[in-house]
Each structure stands twice: as structure tokens, then as C-alpha cells.
Amino acid sequence: MKPPYQSRLLIRRYLLAFALSASVCFSGCGSRRSNQLASERRNSQTAYDQASKLLSEQDYRSAEPLYAEALAGQLPPDMVAPAMIERAECLGGLGRIPEARTLLEESREGLASEIEYHIALGKVFRAAGEKKQAENEFKLARTLASRQRVRVQIPTVD
Questions:
Q1: What's the burial of 79, exposed, middle or buried (CB within 10 Å: 0-12/13-18/19+)?
Q2: In the predicted structure, residue 17 carries a pLDDT above the cut 70
Q3: Domain residue extents for the chain
Q4: In sequence order, what DSSP letters do the residues of the chain get, joined into one string?
Q5: Of 117, 78, 79, residue with least CA distance to 100
Q6: C-alpha count within 13 angstroms, C-beta hemisphere, residue 86
Q7: Which tens digits make up the pLDDT trace of 112-143?
Q8: Which residues are the signal sequence here (predicted)?
Q9: What count of Cα atoms within 13 Å lies in the side-chain half-sphere of residue 1?
Q10: Long-range contacts formed by 135-143: CB under 8 A, 24+ apart
Q11: Residue 48 and residue 53: Cα distance in Å, rounded?
Q12: Residues 10, 128: Cα–Cα separation, whole Å
């Protein structure tokens, strides 16, 4: 039979070996997760960039799913609200105004002001061809900007 100190020494060696093995495993797993997140962020950014280009061409049908893909991924936090607003504009262009309004309500906290919300809602209506409602939202945004003495570029209805 081994003396008690040798048994404790053997147990300590096993624990040390286990701890080292676990730390190597977890650090490797963490770097894989980190690489995966970086890849998702790049993919989200690419989807966002493609969607923005399509939106500028008013290709709402192609842009909307790309915005959805970007939002489902790992967009940087400062890009989430703009992506939601632009996706809402696409939804408006596709005639899906209730969905667009819901999305705008969700993004409202990420907007700098109530002015931005009304501009975004005006863009949704404009994309949907609802010119009168778009004009009303843009007018409300102008009024708020004037009251707050804020200079903002407010779109017009074509």
C-alpha cells in the first residue's frame, strides 16, 4: 500500500492533467466559435450591402430577403436599426405595410429621434405608392424638426 502523500500527489497530477486538457479544448472551441461569429458578421454585412444596392434600384423583391438574412445574422449593433428601417421600406414597396409598421415599431428604440421614425414611415408609404400618407409623415417630421430646431434632410414624394 502506498503512503497517503503519494496517493494525494498522484491525484493532484491527474487533476492538473485534466485541467490542462480542458483548457486546451475550451480555448480551441472558443476560437472556433469566435471564427464562426466573425464569418457570420461578414456574411451579414455582405447581405446588407447587397440589399442596400438593390433598394437604391427599388428592387424591393430581391432586397427584402437579403435584409432579413442580414438581420438574422450578426450585424454590428449600430447597423441593426438602419437595416430594419430599410427592410421596412422594402416591405412597403411590396405592399406589406402592416409588416413594415411592425418592423418600424421594433426598431423605434434604435432611432435617434421621433423625426427619424416619421421619415422612415413616410418612406414606407412612398414605396407602397401611398403618396398622401407619405406626405403626411414627411410633414410631421418637418414640424418636429422645426420645433426641435434640428436640421434634417426630409425626402419628398415624387
A1: middle
A2: no
A3: 43-148
A4: ---HHHHHHHHHHHHHHHHHHHHHHHHHHHHHHHHHHHHHHHHHHHHHHHHHHHHHTT-HHHHHHHHHHHHHTT--HHHHHHHHHHHHHHHHHTT-HHHHHHHHHHHGGGSS-HHHHHHHHHHHHHHHT-HHHHHHHHHHHHHHHHHHT---------
A5: 117
A6: 28
A7: 889 999 999 999 999 999 999 999 999 999 99
A8: 1-27
A9: 2
A10: 141/115
A11: 9
A12: 74
CA distance 97 to 147: 28
Q: Which fold has domain 43-148?
A: 1.25.40
Looking at residue 48, its amino acid is Y
Cα-only R_g, the chain: 26
Per-residue pLDDT tens digits for 31-76 = 666 666 666 667 889 999 999 999 999 999 999 999 999 999 888 8
Closest CA to 85 of 112, 113, 111: 111
